[in-house]
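Subgroup meeting minutes
Present: P.N., E.W., G.H.
Scribe: E.W.

1. P.N. recapped why we're keeping a running log of single-chain structure predictions: easier to compare across weeks, and new members can see raw inputs and outputs side by side.
2. G.H. added today's entry (182 aa).
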Amino acid sequence: MKDLSLHIIDIFQNSVSAKATKIELLITENTERDELLMQFKDNGIGMSTEMVNNVTNSFYTTRTTRKVGLGIPLLKRNAELTGGDFSITSELGVGTEINVRFKHSHIDRQPFGDLAGAIVLTATSYPKTRFIYQHQKDGMEYIFDTDEINEVLDGISIQSPDVVLMLKELIESNLEEIRVKK
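Output recorded in log:
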């Protein structure tokens, strides 16, 4: 995957497949410590210990349509290439948490790509799932919560083309305010 937004979409898809009704993403950029942290949490069906132990193996997948699962192994590898790390914890019936740390300035750290597009695509594709995206950079913060958005929309569908466009612009402008670069 060429950028972090594609990894984010992949993890979100995994959470949706795990029947999560709430998916959270916290991105923390600390340029002073030269760290980029991504924390994913969901309340899906969770994974067995065996699955957690195998999920970073490229040749392990629960899908029946193919014999490889590359998303999580690639994310782990990309973090490690920057001197970072990856961890995953999960409990059946409770959910899953993934923590990924990158060295922020490392030449091999992938760019963010289209973060706003990734968030909006997933949030509007699964309107019954609550998505919370929080982005912190050097003490500044932006939070996007679909529950709050739906309250403001007051019955207008989050999937309406005008709303989708407005949400993408909203996220992009807020990320610009905290100076997050693609």
